[in-house]
Prior knowledge:
This protein is an all-alpha fold. It has 3 helices and no strands. It starts with a helix and ends in a 5-residue tail after the last helix.
Amino acid sequence: MKDLIKKFADEELGNAVIDWTVLIAGAVMMVTAVVLAVVEPNAPVSEASGHIIEVQPLAG
């Protein structure tokens, strides 16, 4: 088992896969944080606007 781990650690392709995985995971977390920061504060405004629109009488 030690030989298998050592072989994997010495292999360049395995190291590159780990590097790219960490990089992509970081990018996904950053995009998720930005989307949540932009979308979340607007939720109460849209809910309040929806309530005002529902309460208004129809012209007719």
